[in-house]
Amino acid sequence: MIFEQFFDKTSSTYTYLISSGKGREALIIDPVLEKTNEYLNLLKNLNLKLVKVIDTHIHADHVSGLAELNEKTDCVTVMGEKAQADIVSMYAKDNEKIKIENIELKTIYTPGHTDDSYSFLMGDRVFTGDTLLIKSTGRTDFQNGNPNDQYHSIFNRLLKLPDKTLVYPAHDYKGEKVSTIGEEKKLNPRLQVNSKEQYVTVMNNLKLAHPQLMDVAISANRKGLTLKEINNRNN
Length: 235
Hints:
- By secondary structure, this protein is α/β, with parallel strands linked by helices.
- It has one domain (about 1-235): Metallo-beta-lactamase, Chain A (4-Layer Sandwich).
- It contains seven helices and 14 strands.
- The strands form three sheets. The protein has a six-stranded mixed β-sheet. A six-stranded mixed β-sheet has the order 7-8-9-10-13-14.
- Helix 3 crosses helix 5 (about 195-205).
- The model has no long low-confidence stretch (mean pLDDT about 95).
């Protein structure tokens, strides 16, 4: 299996490229617009055909590469059915399977960070978007975020996965690349609570500044803008 993890320093975003082998079909999770050529170069070098591209949710801190990759490769653009994004050509439901050649992901609806947040389970690993981060959790104070929903998503869905399940989030701000469900249960400070009410209190008192690109990114990601379209808007 080919598994590549990319990192965008500007937004601290992780992107994942997955394929069953050279010369086969591939999918990408949470692409960043400015990194599009990097993804395309790897696809070319490994003779991979990009078939599907997934965003775990509508991002607020960077512009997604979904539209650009769709324009360059004619791939299928995928998000969960709650997402309101013009570029999406395939909406995945909770527990629905997303397949490419020899690869299968199970969709898990995990709202809380946003109301359109989804995680994707692939065998021994889960891509958690901004719902469950490494030693942290995604903020819940905009885009219809809800700490009650996030508590359910984390404690009643993600933490029910086997402890050995690898956790690959959409962001990390400290350089950590992967965790496990077991490690998050033990070491994630936001999960050391005794009730949903305690978790809600923690999340409601974070007092974080909004992402710098929030207004630009959310609008661009909902409309599915390519780099050319963004440049035209700015000129």
